[in-house]
Design brief:
- Helix content is 48%, strand content 22%.
- The chain is α+β, with helices and mostly antiparallel strands.
């Protein structure tokens, strides 16, 4: 009876032991390590399983074999080195290594050895290929970030609110004039490098940023370690938890000293150019007014001579007087352009809005330019739709635009050429086109053609006359009416200049001068 009870208890004990071993095996299967036992001589005497793929051979092929017979020789020596070190020191020893996979990507492993009983050593081997790749990618990304910050001269930082710890990147140290880790950054250290007269404002800005999840900016001075004053741009925002409580503040610091210096230089240069432009406009205005008085006298006395008020003229004298009149008229047009330009620049220009008869205005301009066309041996073709209505505008200024466009077409069309002038109806306005068979305009010049004083070929302009202001004035006048102006041209195929005007301009006469004051300089 007693023997029977004893056998039963022994059986129960063995069952409990087997259950415990099974649980241990289940735990081992969940571990990503392969676990081996090595005897003092370096022979593999046990395999305890594990969830990872074996970096060696199947267990039945390496049990009972020496490490030197299983691993490549250099690696086997390193492996035995950490085995001996674990046995001698009684401490954990670690080795990372890789195995040749015959042309495939290398696989990396980590072996950890701890001493066991009776001189044995337990070895835990884990594949770490993915970890190594992740670490390598992280190193590459970190190096890329470091290089980018160094090139852009932008440092980054993080201030933890709970611990008060301030972390800087290497470039952040360099912006402050220190080598990385030369000093320990704190909020107090940071503020100490801000000029005294800006310190309070910067501290207030940082306090405001600390509660904002949206990035905010702050420009301020920075006193470097060597005493040099720099200008920096700080951009930062708050990190918050799930309930919106601020945890930290993260941001960047960019050295913008050179940029600020360049901005200041450009601002100064722009002010100087504006002053020169103002002086030029004043000079043009003054000279134009001074020219008008003697020019009026010349033209008046020329008419007296032409009408033979002082006595009869012979044919040669009539020819001389006609030449004087033509030259005076040309000079008069130049003076008028300069005066219009001065008015536009100063804002002293306004439209006189009333009804415009476009057909009648075109006929008037063509009649005035007919002698010029005859002299240039250029023919006109006039085509205005019967549907073109009368509209609201400044008839004199629209006539000035027509004179500029048609006059240019005549000047730059060779003898035997043709200038076609047409007008048509748009949905809410009218369109006028002036097409010539002249020399055409290269694409690189077309965008600049409506800017003040622009001349494609100054020598040609001197030969044919003009100030380089006609098209810029025309653009200003058309835009003052709420319209637009443009051209289509190809070298050697002539040009088509066009403008479109609304039936009713969107501005009153007193508002037009504000529109025109900046128009000549616009593209």
């Amino acid at each position: 009876m007693d023997d029977h009870l004893k056998s039963r208890e022994q059986l129960l004990t063995e069952l409990r032991q087997l259950r415990a071993e099974r649980e241990q095996l289940n735990h081992l299967e969940a571990v990503p390590d392969q676990i081996f036992r090595l005897c003092p001589s370096g022979t593999l005497i046990g395999y305890l399983g594990g969830g990872g793929a074996s970096p060696l051979l199947p267990p039945e092929q390496f049990l009972g074999r020496h490490v030197l017979d299983v691993l490549p020789h250099p690696l086997a020596q390193d492996f035995l080195g950490i085995v001996d070190a674990a046995r001698e020191t009684g401490a954990l020893q670690t080795l990372e290594y890789h195995l040749d996979t015959r042309g495939l990507d290398e696989e990396y492993y980590e072996a950890r050895c701890i001493p066991g009983s009776h001189g044995e050593v337990l070895c835990f081997v884990r594949e770490i290929t993915e970890r190594r790749r992740t670490e390598e990618n992280l190193r590459t990304s970190q190096q890329l970030l470091t290089d980018s910050q160094r090139i852009a001269h932008i440092g980054s930082w993080r201030l933890d609110f709970d611990s008060g710890t301030l972390m800087w990147t290497d470039e952040q140290y360099r912006i402050f004039g220190y080598e990385p880790c030369e000093m320990t950054p704190t909020l107090e250290v940071f503020l100490a490098h801000v000029p005294p007269d800006e310190r309070e404002t910067v501290a207030a800005d940082l306090f405001s940023i600390a509660t904002s999840v949206e990035p905010a900016h702050c420009e301020h001075g920075l006193i470097r370690k060597d005493g040099a004053l720099r200008q920096v741009l700080c951009t930062a925002h708050a990190e918050v938890d799930g309930e919106g409580r601020p945890l930290a503040m993260v941001g960047t610091t960019q050295d913008i000293t050179e940029r600020k210096a360049l901005e200041e230089a450009l601002r100064t240069q722009n002010e100087q150019l504006m002053e020169l432009d103002r002086l030029k406009s004043n000079f043009v205005n003054a000279v134009s007014h001074e020219l008008r008085t003697p020019l009026t006298s010349i033209m008046g006395y020329g008419e007296f001579l032409e009408d033979e008020v002082a006595g009869p003229l012979n044919p040669d004298q009539h020819a001389f007087v006609n030449q004087i009149q033509r030259a005076a008229g040309r000079l008069g047009n130049l003076v008028n352009d300069l005066l219009d330009f001065a008015r536009l620049q100063s804002g002293a220009f306004k439209l006189m809005i009333r009804e415009v008869d476009l057909r009648g205005k075109l006929a008037e301009v063509l009649g005035a330019l007919y002698p010029q066309a005859q002299e240039a041996q250029v023919t006109f073709n006039f085509d205005v739709s019967e549907a073109v209505p009368h509209f609201q505008g400044d008839p004199e200024r629209i006539g000035q635009v027509l004179t500029n466009l048609i006059g240019n077409a005549i000047k730059f069309t060779p003898p035997g050429g043709r200038v076609d002038v047409s007008a048509s109806v748009l949905a809410e306005g009218v369109r006028v086109e002036v097409r010539d068979t002249g020399i055409g305009i290269a694409p690189r010049h077309q965008r600049k053609l409506f800017t003040k004083f622009f001349q494609i070929d100054p020598s040609t302009t001197r030969e044919k006359g003009g100030t380089g202001l006609g098209l810029s004035i025309s653009k200003a006048l058309v835009e003052a009416h709420g319209g637009r102006i443009g051209l289509e041209s190809r070298p050697g195929e002539g040009s088509t200049f066009w403008f479109e005007l609304p039936i009713v301009p969107p501005v009153s006469p007193c508002d037009a001068k504000a529109v025109c004051s900046t128009a000549p300089g616009s593209d």
